[in-house]
From TrEMBL:
Name the record gives this protein: DNA gyrase subunit A
Protein's organism: Campylobacter portucalensis
Record CDD domains: TOP4c
All residue ranges annotated as the Topo IIA-type catalytic domain in the record: 36-499
Database matches in Gene3D superfamilies: 3.30.1360.40, DNA gyrase/topoisomerase IV, subunit A, C-terminal (2.120.10.90), Topoisomerase II, domain 5 (3.90.199.10), Topoisomerase, domain 3 (1.10.268.10)
Catalytic activities: ATP-dependent breakage, passage and rejoining of double-stranded DNA
EC number: 5.6.2.2
Catalytic site: Y124 (o-(5'-phospho-dna)-tyrosine intermediate)
Family to which this protein belongs: Belongs to the type II topoisomerase GyrA/ParC subunit family.
Length: 854
């Protein structure tokens, strides 16, 4: 039976195979023709077609703007047969300074904003190319790249642009294809060119050497990149995760902190950020924010976050980083098209590929210019022959019946080519003058030199690389592109503390419990006996009780009169001006009603070889390993058991010296019951190692070895340090003495002080009555403090009215143990309530008169 015509045309095709083939064709079309950029010019087809269409329209950087609709129409009609929205969106992005590191399109009108606002309709906006776009297209008319037919083969379009800058890395790219995606971050052009110049000089340069020039991505919106690991991974493998944070600063307004956002992470939507912060505040997920407002203008981003008076700016800021797009992760995938195939590139590969592209462009441009120069030289050589034989040429032309005969005669008689003969026939009579003859000869000479130079370039790779180098330097000079995104070396373990400068601070706390920190440099040094500066503004019934010097990163241990211990980082204490009242400490730590802070101790670790010693009003001392207080709790812990009617006066850290460490290693200490008072050591006290000096209000003190004070448990009572001669006496302070050459400064409530060497205080057994520390009279008042000092320190004293004075230690006279001393502070009817020491920060001023003996 014969087959019909239709049956002969039927082919049996497997449906599965057909779908696979069709989907593969579709996939390659999306990958190559739409979603991914070319590794050489960094452009997707739509971007390349937009620029080429604008070039056709003559919309250069110095030309008048043209309606975006006209540009989009040309792109769609000639080269890109897709939706007008997709083309216009691509045009808009190339004009947005917050999307592109260096814009390619110069837009006029509304082209969107960082708030996510869309651009105006294409019929309202206008556009033209930027200077950078012209550099991408430069030499396009010199056969530097291949041209391919457009979609209907009616026109040709470039397969790639010559691109004098590494646009793929400069402006980055993002896109999702079938089964793959690209996300390349933008970079600084200055750094990219420096990296390319390095590779031209040293083709074997390592990634580490390249990264000395190309430090990392440089986003148009700025921000801070945290951690170099993600950058290194991306540059080495083509994939990496980069953490980006908003750049902020803190301002003060009416004793309140204001967080100001200056820069946002790349592609962060400002309007959505403000909305998210408002939602977090409304849902009470973030405390301490009173108002959020957008004060951004044409000069840049400024988002203001006003905090409540008791809010800690660093805590709020840390919460914002964790809960909003103020911190984002940029996932780098350096995927691009090379030789019609998608590939993930390392940084060095992309740089090398761009350099190879530029070499190809320069070679093709040189060949084009060489051919053009040779053609011109050929014509000039013919004209020169004609001028040398002008009479014969004129006679030959006159006698020729027509142009063709004249041309053939010229070719036959003078050995010319048809091109040369035609040029002679087209030559005007004015070229026969002597001046014109000279111009032809000069032009021929110049053309021949040009030909020689072009031939030399084609023969020398070194000359080609020199041209690339010069062009790159030209681009660097033309497009200034300094880095705007800051890079912080390490992200691992980053917390809010790492964002706060480690500065020397004076921390003060008043009788009513107001605490603040002020940079120690705020207090200028004054000569002895000066009136001092007001350290803070207090109420009439308030005065400063404690102050000390520490760094912002230190941990503060608050020991209260009830034997409780609390923790607080110094940077979490509000920083105030010199006269600011401060913030109530009850808002920072969980104090009980009527609980009073007696000691604030800064530390930067909880080492096993350190211990914490507590001294009570009734003369009890207890020593416990500092590590037992390392488990920080917001509600605090019980640090010592106190007798009835007793309270903690002070506490200090003791670090084991070599002598005591040897005792521990040799197991010379006995085990004791931590709840039982320890008796004195049998026989003589061991005169070695560190010593403790405990002083009382009535001017008595006792010095004994630290080694006689064993470490006991955290909740134990302790042992007797000193017994009182008078019933009204009590402990006012204690200090650790390293050796007998150290000096002890004693200061009384009436501002009298003296320096005494430690060897004047006799070493005793613990629990004795001690010896006289300062001779007290009505003029001196009670003893209020003792500290170890030297000439490299300054004294800082505070009075009941809140005045603070800084005194050079060298101006305070040395005196014996059983003396009163000299006037240190002019109290003017007030009393000194506390003293501390701090490092020198300024040159000594002129001191006062001779010491006034009391």
């Amino acid at each position: 039976m014969e087959k019909t015509l239709f049956e002969e045309d039927i082919q049996i095709i497997d449906v599965e195979d057909s779908i696979k083939t069709s989907y593969l064709d579709y996939s390659m079309s999306v990958i190559i023709g739409r979603a991914l950029p070319d590794a050489r010019d960094g452009l997707k087809p739509v971007h390349r077609r937009i620029l080429y269409a604008m070039n056709d329209l003559g919309v250069g950087s110095r030309s008048p703007y043209k309606k975006s609709a006209r540009i989009v129409g040309d792109v769609i009609g000639k080269y890109h047969p897709h939706g007008d929205t997709a083309v216009y969106d691509a045009l808009v992005r190339m004009a947005q300074p917050f999307s592109m590191r260096v814009t390619i399109v110069d837009g006029q009108g509304n082209f969107g904003s960082v708030d996510g606002d869309g651009a105006a309709a294409m019929r309202y906006t206008e556009a033209r190319m930027t200077n950078l776009a012209e550099e991408l297209l430069k030499d396009l008319d010199k056969d530097t790249v291949d041209f391919v037919p457009n979609y209907d083969e009616s026109l040709n379009e470039p397969d790639v642009l010559p691109s004098r800058v590494p646009n793929l890395l400069l402006n980055g790219s993002s896109g999702i294809a079938v089964g793959m995606a690209t996300n390349i971050p933008p970079h600084s052009l200055d750094e990219l060119i420096d990296g390319l110049l390095l590779l031209l000089e040293n083709k074997n340069a390592t990634l580490e050497e390249i990264m000395k020039h190309i430090k990392g991505p440089d986003f148009p919106t700025g921000g801070i990149i945290f951690g170099k690991k993600g950058i290194i991974d991306a540059y080495k493998t083509g994939r990496g995760l980069i953490k980006i944070r908003a750049k902020t600063h803190i301002e003060k307004k009416s004793n309140k902190d204001i967080i100001v956002i200056d820069e946002l992470p790349y592609q962060a939507n400002k309007a959505n950020l403000i909305k998210k912060i408002s939602e977090l505040v409304k849902d009470k997920q973030i405390d301490g924010i009173s108002e959020v407002r957008d004060e951004s203008d044409r000069d840049g981003i400024r988002v203001v976050i006003e905090l409540k008076r008791d809010a800690m700016s660093d805590v709020v800021l840390n919460h914002l980083f964790k809960s909003t797009i103020m911190e984002t992760t940029f996932g780098v995938i350096m995927l691009a098209i090379d030789n019609k195939e998608p590939k993930i590139f390392a940084l060095k590969e992309l740089l090398e590929l761009f350099l190879n592209h530029r070499k190809t462009v320069i070679i093709r441009r040189t060949i084009f210019e060489l051919q053009k120069a040779r053609a011109r030289a050929h014509i000039l050589e013919g004209l020169k022959i004609a001028l040398d034989n002008i009479d014969d040429v004129i006679e030959l032309i006159k006698n020729s019946p027509d142009t063709i005969s004249a041309r053939d005669s010229l070719v036959a008689k003078f050995g010319l080519s048809e091109l040369q003969a035609n040029a002679i026939l087209d030559m005007r009579l004015s070229r026969l003058t002597g001046l014109e003859r000279d111009k032809i000869e000069a032009e021929l000479k110049e053309i021949l030199e040009t030909i020689q130079n072009l031939e030399n370039i084609l023969k020398s790779e070194k000359l080609i690389e020199e041209i690339i180098k010069n062009e790159l330097l030209e681009m660097k000079g033309k497009f200034k592109c300094p880095r705007i995104t800051e890079i912080v070396d390490d992200y691992e373990g980053i917390d809010i503390e790492d964002l706060i400068p480690n500065e020397n601070m004076v921390v003060t706390i008043t009788h009513r419990g107001y605490i603040k920190r002020v940079p120690s440099k705020t207090y200028e040094k004054q000569k002895r006996g000066g009136k001092g500066k007001v350290a803070l503004t207090t109420y009439d019934d308030d005065f400063i009780e404690n102050f000390f010097i520490c760094d912002t990163h230190d941990t503060l241990m608050f020991i209260t009169d009830r034997g409780q211990l609390y923790w607080l980082k110094v940077y979490k204490i509000p920083e105030g001006s010199r006269t600011a009242k401060g913030k109530a400490v009850v808002n920072l730590i969980d104090l009980q009603p009527d609980e009073k802070i007696m000691a604030i101790i800064p530390t930067n670790d909880f080492d096993e070889n350190k211990s914490l010693a507590f001294f009570t009003k009734n003369g009890i001392v207890k020593r416990t390993k500092l590590s037992e207080y390392s488990n920080i709790r917001s509600v605090g812990i019980k640090a010592i058991n106190l007798d009835e009617n007793d309270e903690v006066v002070t506490a200090l850290i003791i670090e084991k010296d070599e002598f005591e460490l040897n005792l521990t290693n040799q197991n010379l200490e006995e085990n004791i019951d931590e709840t039982e008072e320890v008796n004195q050591i049998e026989g003589d006290e061991i005169p070695s190692g560190q010593m403790l000096l405990v002083a009382t209000k009535k001017g008595m003190c006792i010095k004994f070895n630290v080694s006689s004070l064993r470490e006991i448990g955290r909740v134990s009572r302790g042992v007797t340090a000193i017994k009182f001669k008078e019933d009204e006496d009590s402990v006012i302070g204690a200090t650790v003495i390293q050796n007998d050459n150290q000096e002890i400064l004693s200061v009384s409530s009436k501002g009298i002080g003296k320096r005494t060497t430690a060897d004047e205080y006799r070493l005793q057994k613990r629990a004795g009555k001690g010896v006289i520390c300062m001779k007290l009279t009505n003029k001196t008042g009670d003893l209020i403090g003792i500290v170890i000092v030297d000439d490299e320190m300054d004294l800082m004293a505070l009075t009941t009215s809140g005045k603070m004075i800084r005194v050079d230690m060298q101006s305070i006279r040395k005196a014996g143990r059983n003396t009163s001393g000299v006037k240190v502070v002019n109290v003017d009817g007030e009393e000194v309530v506390n003293i501390a020491i701090c490092p020198k920060i300024e040159e000594d001023e002129e001191m006062g008169d001779e010491n006034e003996e009391i």
